[in-house]
Amino acid sequence: MSGNVTLKSEMPAVTASGLDNVVAAETALSHVDGEAGRLIVAGYDVEELVKAHDFEGAVAALWAAAGLEPAPSAAEIRNALGRAREAAFGYIPALLSSKRHETVTEGLRTGLSMLADEPGEDAADRDIPAHIRAPVSALGAAAVITAALVRAEAGKSPVAPDRHAGHAEDFIRILRDEAPAAAEVEALNAYMVTVADHGMNASTFTARVIASTKAGTISAVVGALCALKGPLHGGAPGPVLDMLDEIGTRENIEPWLERKIAGGARLMGFGHRVYRVRDPRADVFNKAVTILTNGNERVRFAREVELAALKALRAAKPGHRIDTNMEYYTAVLLEALGIPRDAVTSVFAMARIAGWTAHVMEQERVGRLIRPQSRYVGHWPEGEAAA
Ligand code: CMC
After folding, report:
1. Is cis: bond before 70, omega within 30 of 0?
2. Residues identified as active-site
């Protein structure tokens, strides 16, 4: 270095184009052990977290782990979420009347961006304690918006939320205008708890970068949703179901997979940047959907496709350890719950907002702007040679 000027030859090389193995933050929220296939969330193995908590409990555990003070209890979160759903229902007509989106996830992006980063005391959700108003508003709104958009696509009007109900239960009810079975509520809670947080994935990293600029919680959530919707992240389940439909019959499984892999296609629901073994969340969902459907034909077919895909991927990519990721059984589970495929990513977001907002809380306490560097490989002004 010469003074504060970095010489061209001193710029460090890019560690890896996808920032593989770069540790970008310290967090008390979750830990992904890709070799052991283990996920720890707020101090629990994910399988135990699902047994210990419903979604409200998982939100409380995550926000407490993020250092939120005073940390709300699960009951306080439930109460606040009910109010947030009610407040969100008030602006559904404005959202529906300004429709510019093509998919539910795009509509959710618009709907969430209607929320204020710093909701004032005159806001519809003013009864929610100020220190959790923005994150709770995002969580409540995501459920109400998703249900209303799905219904609007089917030509149905929105159903008003019930502030006294549990979050998962009320979401299914306002989606269908019919009370769900207890097993369905349990399955959706298991799903939402399991995906609530997952290390430094692309959307969470996005949320932390935005939070580091002090842009605010809702801005961070909207940005994170934009990162989530891509098919390499949270947009995979829809294509998983398309794949199962396209394969269609048992006889077609192997030829279809061989054709796709030979053509260079990526099979949706397989592979992961961190897991080198089966994603532990895939097991939670496989179990949940098997209980929910009593292992129906669709689930059996999905299992057969999964086994054949793993065999085909191992034969075609012997140098890579590609296994089933959670999106595979997310697709089958949410389909069994009657969630239309273009809303699956929105339901993922409804749960992941718990993690994003916890990371925002953590990042805001760190307080330092995330601002990495790039290595310039373009042309230098005439007369200057790149070193
Ligand atoms: N199907 C076929 N080949 C694959 C797949 C797949 N699903 N995943 C990885 N590969 C191949 C890839 O083509 C590459 O082969 P080659 O070196 O011959 O080109 C090799 O395996 C290594 O791939 P990579 O690109 O280094 O792996 P990555 O860590 O960048 O990719 C991934 C991770 C999730 C983007 C990728 O596995 C993928 O595209 N999977 C399909 C989409 C999917 O299921 N997404 C959900 C991800 S999990 C949930 C979440 O993050 O939200």
Report:
1. yes
2. 272, 327
Q: Which atom of ligand 1 is nearest to the CA of 202?
A: 51
Q: Do 275 and 37 touch, CB atoms closer than 8 A?
A: yes
pLDDT digits (tens, 9 = 90+) for 114-147: 999 988 776 778 889 999 999 999 999 999 999 9
**Every domain of the chain and the residues it spans:** 30-230+342-366, 237-336
What residue type is assigned to position 197 of the chain? D
Nearest CA to ligand 1 atom 9: 271
Distance 310 CA to ligand 1 centre (A): 13
What's the 65 CA to ligand 1 centre distance in angstroms?
31
Burial class of residue 2 (count of CB atoms within 10 Å of its CB; 0-12, 13-18, 19+)? exposed
**How far apart are the CA of 266 and the centre of ligand 1, in A?**
7
Residues paired with 31 in a beta bridge: 40
Long-range contact pairs involving 286-289 (C-beta distance under 8 Å, separation at least 24): 286/329, 286/332, 288/186, 288/187, 288/190, 288/191, 288/333, 289/187, 289/329, 289/332, 289/333, 289/336
The label of the residue with tokens 């290390």 reads 199
The architecture (CATH level 2) of 237-336 comes to: Orthogonal Bundle (1.10)
- The tens digit of pLDDT for each residue in 57-116 reads 999 999 999 999 999 999 999 999 999 999 999 999 999 998 888 899 999 999 999 999
The owner of tokens 């012997």 is 318
Q: How far apart are CA 267 and CA 251, in angstroms?
A: 18
Q: Which CATH class is domain 30-230+342-366?
A: mainly alpha
Model pTM above 0.90: yes
